[in-house]
Amino acid sequence: MDTRLLPRSPFLTSVGRYFDRAAKLTEHPQGLLDQVKCCNAVYRMRFPVKRDDGTIEVVEAYRAEHSHHRTPTKGGIRFSLGVTQDEVIALAGLMTYKCSIVGVPFGGAKGGVRVDSHAISDGFRERLVRRYTTELYKKNFIGPAIDVPAPDYGTGEREMAWIADTYVMLSHNELNPYACVTGKPLSLHGIPGRREATGLGVYYGIRECMSHADDMKAIGLTTGVAGKRVIVQGLGNVGYHAAKFLQTEGGAVIVAIAEKEGGIFNPKGLDVDAVFQHLHHTKSIHNFPGAQNIATPGEVLELECEVLVPAALENQITADNAARINAKIVAEAANGPITDDADEILRKRGILIIPDIYLNAGGVSVSYFEWLKNLSHVSFGRMSSKHEELNNRHLLDMVEKLTGKSLDGAERQLILKGPQEIDYVYSALADTMSYSYNRIRDAWKSRGISDLRTTAFYLAVDRIARTYLALGIFP
Ligand code: NAD
Q1: Are residues 217 and 171 in the same domain?
Q2: Is the overall model pTM greater than 0.90, yes or no?
């Protein structure tokens, strides 16, 4: 066996095992499967960043490009003290499979910087991001056609704006420099809907899963999100938006929320926006009015609910606590929240797992739309929105004339109004999540595969292998 392909960390081990389980179901030769599995390139950096007091900190950072079967490669940048080379490789691999699952034509990548995102100053953060971008640029690890970063744990629009600005300064004369990164602010060539895309996609994915009566009956649930008890771990970008849409659009009851320092519980439901404000003002989730404090985030995961949504980090549900998970569905909003041994325990207990490589793909889907917008230099709908409005007006006038009835002002406005850019983004995201779920589910049922995760990996591995074959790399 080629030892270079052997994984080392528990997270990378889990991803490798998920891959192997699915790869066995394909008929592709082992060499081709090894190529689909391995990480094509990793750039490990150490560079100096000046602290606010003038002293120097040497920062460790990575960018892994997992698969060049399609370019550019794509994936977020994480700021966390837990960043290691293995973690970045595992996350980059998940990006490759995720893009394939939702039909986004990119290879997978991921960046990581080993810093405590909560502890660094704004000045240090900006110097760090600009230096990291320059390092990537020097080695050809960033560019609209090469590798396109996005936000992940500990980063957001502000960091993406600094990356874009640094890249623009370095790349004179390039036609599409803003397509070098996605998740940018709207005022800097971003796209409406990107901020909430991952969490909204998580909601769409859970909604789609829970709409299948047979599958819900098999786990003792009725269909629909409305009225179901949901627990969310991590009230960051993904967790906050997932919880908010599950509550406001889906009618779910958010009974508990966990953050780093512990959690809160209220069987009658928590107002997600109010909890979010409380967290930001008091810097702790504890002591939210009307809710019971829970000492550790781990305890929150074990409370009774219908849907558990881990939205923080990997390795949260392990062989140690899997037997105590009290949910019917675990919806993986985070990347890799369940280790592979815990995955087996949960499945044996009849718990349905909606896998990360499908469920949190809303972010990369809308990033794809942002990249397309940056390449075309025009917002979605600019050429068609008014035309659609005029068409609607003609049609409505005709219907009113033929029927002799007319709509009131508000109804008329609803039909006449042409779509805005956000409408295109939301509808394309909803369609992506719905279509992709049903593609996985159909294969799961028709091929008799054990679970959704293995099926999603199987579809991704098979599609990527076929792309390599079509490229003629393995004649
Ligand atoms: P974020 O930094 O915005 O939020 C993460 C939150 O989790 C923070 O509020 C943090 O305090 C909290 N947290 C950390 N450890 C915790 C613990 N042990 N228990 C409870 N809460 C804890 O990060 P994010 O962008 O929301 O990313 C969360 C997860 O979603 C990561 O796994 C990331 O890879 C994945 N993801 C993010 C995106 C995206 O678009 N941002 C896309 C796909 C997947």
Answers
A1: no
A2: yes
